[in-house]
Input
Amino acid sequence: MLTNMLTYRFSSYVLIALSIGLLIVYFPDPKGKDAKNYSEFYEILNEKGINTKLVFDSLLLDVMDHESLPSWEVKEVKIIKNHSFYYVKSHAGSIADLQRWAQQRHYVVNVDHNGIALVKSIEKLPVVKEAKLMNVSAVSAYVLDAMTFAFPSKPKPVFEEDVGHGNEAFYTRNMKIPVEGYSFSDLVDLGSLLDGLPVSFSFADLQVSSRNGVSGEMTLSIVGGL
Output
């Protein structure tokens, strides 16, 4: 256990050094363009946006918590904005036991046509500390390079068409990231690579397997200028 923790901490330090190096290359001016006059930009990014790093950090903590589930197992995770839905499968467990477990840990048990899910809200934090108008193309290039170095064998993001806002003063560019054989720690590392950038979390649909890890798809949104 100690060896695994030290290895993970070492890899995290390497990722931090990598992200700093790439940030210097793609964003030589760390201040960017001041966006304080773009009220809609600030609203989309920091009021309506979801902090990607916080989502993945919270996901890892929840997964560790799920190890104590009473005869239930999480098989699918859906994250929609700032709510996590953990769909569970029973191994001779009762819903009453699940309810008691959930109440002690601030989850809500939801039962509907999709199945049985543990639902939890994710704390709302701004995407960035200062709303700076970065170039969406530069952010996209950074993401591609950072993911290539950090996850060389994983599929790369697919970028969608830009959507203009504020008389096209700035844009939103969605990127869909295929998730194949990730671990939850990998997602935390991805969140660290994106920390401080105008990249907001949108959606994830993930299948969980002890053999194949975490697979599925997620969507993140870059907000910036051209």
